[in-house]
Amino acid sequence: MTPPYRLQGRAAIVTGATRGIGHAVARELAAAGALVCVTARDAEVVRRTAAELGGVGVAGSVADPDHLRAVVDLALREFGRIDVVVNNAATNLPYGSLMDVDPLAWREAFTVNVEAPLRLVQCAWHAWMGEHGGAVVNVCTEGATHVGPRIGAYGTSKAALLHLTGQLAGELGPRVRVNSVSPGLVRTEMARFVWEPGEEEVAAGLPLGRIGEPEDVARAVVWLASDAAEWITGADLLVDGGTRVRSAGTTTAYTVHERLRAHEPTQGRGELRDQPPPADRRRTDLGYHLPGA
Ligand SMILES: NC(=O)c1ccc[n+]([C@@H]2O[C@H](COP(=O)([O-])OP(=O)(O)OC[C@H]3O[C@@H](n4cnc5c(N)ncnc54)[C@H](OP(=O)(O)O)[C@@H]3O)[C@@H](O)[C@H]2O)c1
Q1: Cβ–Cβ < 8 Å for 181, 157
Q2: Where in the chain are the domains?
Q3: Per residue of the chain (293 residues), what is the pLDDT tens digit?
Q4: Biased-composition ranges for Basic and acidic residues (predicted)?
Q5: Which of 44, 141, 200, 231 has most Cβ atoms within 10 angstroms of its Cβ?
């Protein structure tokens, strides 16, 4: 299928682009004609993803400011421009009651989910976008505006990302538009522990009758990044299958919250995503540390 929005000749950076939503975003951007620069921590998968998409890539954690500078340098060196930045990489750790959360792990969630998007936009702005214009899309979450069991660090950091989106939109216009997309439950590794134990049950509670696929979110990101959204900035686009409005059509409890309640922080050391970071990062990645783990 021909992508409806053309991004021919534009250049895009997508963080966390080797699987899940970020991978779908990078794929859709490339299909729309954009040159893509992908990032994630696993160097071999970054290399493969860049090759698959005919783009470039650099491995590292978004928590590392040097990595973010390297990403912008690479995109500029290879493409000569940076039109689109998609802040997608995130951590959903530390998991558990906030009273038990290690404040250093809490800080890491904010480093990855809030500080990194700001730093990357700063780098792209100073290197190219501030002069030439562009579009930023932050991947937030449907849960950013309300509370949920055991995901306090994730939720508050994503709420901060939502606020950052609006703040940047106000500061960077008219040249740069800044928007966010807020997914509901999507079939990715990060959320596997929620959807896999009984997908039908979760789907049945949603007005649109199914959980999300990464492509559902990717299409929204590409649309916001394209000229079709040229008069939109500071917006948050919910892509949640009707999660936010489900209570009008169901009398059952919210299955996603039931799953979160049932998932013990100590299970699998509270890892809500499947793949551990590369071995050399395990020592310092506080996102993987949970009290008592
Ligand atoms: N899935 C859902 O239901 C859902 C719902 C709402 C919002 N979201 C949001 O959607 C975004 C993507 O999530 P996803 O579900 O697609 O996750 P995912 O399947 O776990 O993929 C995460 C991607 O980010 C990379 N990554 C993780 N930590 C990183 C770091 N510190 N630095 C650089 N790259 C990193 C991963 O590769 P490496 O491990 O190799 O680094 C991978 O490419 C996140 O912002 C998440 O909060 C997801």
Answers
A1: no
A2: 11-274
A3: 667 789 999 999 999 999 999 999 999 999 999 999 999 999 999 999 999 999 999 999 999 999 999 999 999 999 999 999 999 999 999 999 999 999 999 999 999 999 999 999 999 999 999 999 999 999 999 999 999 999 999 999 999 999 999 999 999 999 999 999 999 999 999 999 999 999 999 999 999 999 999 999 999 999 999 999 999 999 999 999 999 999 998 767 788 888 888 887 754 333 444 344 444 433 223 222 222 22
A4: 260-286
A5: 141
**Two tokens at 115?**
């500080």
Q: Which of 13, 15, 19 to mutate to test the pocket of ligand 1 (most atoms within 8 A of CB)?
A: 19
| Distance from Cα 189 to the centre of ligand 1, integer Å | 8
This prediction has a pTM of: 0.91
Place of tokens 């978004």: 62
Is 5 catalytic? The answer is no
Q: Which of 149, 190, 168 is nearest to 235 (CA)?
A: 168
Q: What is d(CA 11, CA 77) in angstroms, rounded to the nearest whole number?
A: 11
Hey, what are 255's tokens? Answer: 């299955």
